[in-house]
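Hey all, sorry for the wall of text incoming. These are the two entities for the joint prediction.
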Amino acid sequence: MKLVVQSLLNRRFVASLTVLAIALSVALILSVERLRYSARTSFANSASGVDLIIAPRGNDVQILLATLFGVGSTGTGMSGDVVDLLEDMPGVAWTVPLMQGDNHKGFPVIGTSESYFEHFKHSRGEALTFAQGTPFADPRSAVIGAEVAERLGYGLGMEIVNAHGAGSVALEVHDEAPFQVTGILARTNTAVDRMVFVSLQGFEEIHAEAEAHPADPLAAHTGEDHVENGVNGVVPAQVNAAYVGLSNRTAVLGVQRAIATYTREPLSAVMPNVALLQLWSITGTAESALRVMSLAVVVASMIGMVVMLSAALEARRREFAILRSVGASPRDVVLMIVTEALLVTASGITLGLLIFWGAILLADPILSTQFGVTLGNQMLGTSEAALLLTILCFGGLASLLPAWRVYRMTLADGLTTKL
Amino acid sequence: MLQNTCFTVEAGERVLLRGPSGSGKTTLMAAISGVIEIPIGTVSVAGQDIGALPASKRDRFRADHMGLIFQVFNLVPWLSAVDNILLPCRYSKRRRERIAGPLDMEAHRLMAALGLDPDTLGASQASALSVGQQQRVAAARALIGAPDVILADEPTSALDPETKASFMQLLSQQAQDSGAALLMVSHDEGLDRHFDRVVEMSELSGVEA
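and here's what came out:
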């Protein structure tokens, strides 16, 4: 072992380059895997408590992304009557109306009723809890997610102003209609953390002027009738979507059929988990490509190590002959090469882990703000550890090639030291 | 103690095997040290038939009972002089156990006995030593742990005449002190006085070259 270390130190330049190559490849593949896994868990956790999403007819994935993740929008609105209708359907336990289209400093603003905080479940059935404050007290109340509070440094009682549009560029600021933060949600590690919730009434009021000239002239517009009712959960004339929770899972098909055949306006009933699968099948190709690429980089770094070991063999013939003369068997020499490879791979993996952890620390805040995806503070998952172990074994295996050459070489050379 | 069909070296005896290059000296060394495959019953060292041992046992046996010195390139260049000297102790428990006291001390003692200053040269990398110094380090390595026989393959050919004489003097002396037999092959004339006996290669018939 000491011999191996000293031998590597003697070639420290090439050896450290090889270690660096392995480290980078390890960091890359770990990051890709972690990102993939985190994105999937985060999305699945966000979607876990809703049985159906009802929205104006559109692409399932688009509806899913817009409602549960606040990415993009559902486009047109649908009549608030639909929500009332849904409530009366057999098997429906609860409905939560949603209004969208505004943002607060890039965070999506959702207009909803108090039932949202009651019924919305995340991460396999966990209810939302308030870290501070309460749900809406009056139409000008706002509830913010943990990420929003943390990033923007908001506390209870702060006044916030929303802007029209979905991006962080404020096209039209509703500064005439500020909201007051009355509640901050506990962290969920889902998209909810980066959302701002206001009451339906409040959301509608700030658009009262803008909606005097509705974008869709065919859409029913009777908002004024409902504005007074506001906080008490009465649905306004027009909403963007609604979450539906079922008391009986088997009712899902009945509700879907009813929605699909609803004649007054075209609607979609999206099952979040099904839509997620569609989303994964879309992103799957890119994911696979990314994985294959990072695997290829690992393989390349391993080849680099084999090249390093093999290239040094010729120059080390003399060294091996000397070791043979003092009693090393060809097996000892082979063992030296394999140990060298394992040592280089292990150092590479260790350095790669450090790079990976550093990258997580740097990227986590950005990813969770921008996409609501949390990489997690887990140092090393079991599957990741298994991956690293595989790489280590692969390193050992790869070294068998130069080791086999050195075995034949030592047998052929014997004690001949003339070169 | 070391013999084939027609050639025997007694324990502690110092023998010079002389012959021109190409007469099979190096092959003989390889055969005795067990690096190449040889027929059963051709070479035995310390009572052990080398040809009868499997390859891995031969490596162990070589580490335990023999010290080897070559013409040039005797040392692992990136190891220090002391680490080079101690190499056999890595592979041979027997030689390690034959050393009383710390291994480093023994390496230093041998260096001093062979005319090398252990304090200044002990820690220096082998590649930084002169050829003469390297050969002395190689001799110390062959001697450490008192093996039964020291095989030297033209160890003086790279040395200048004065160094040659002093090297032979010290090697011969140390071999005698440790009780090891010394078998050296060389084409060099004028080394006879350091040996108990001189054998010409041409006199040997049982050695396959």
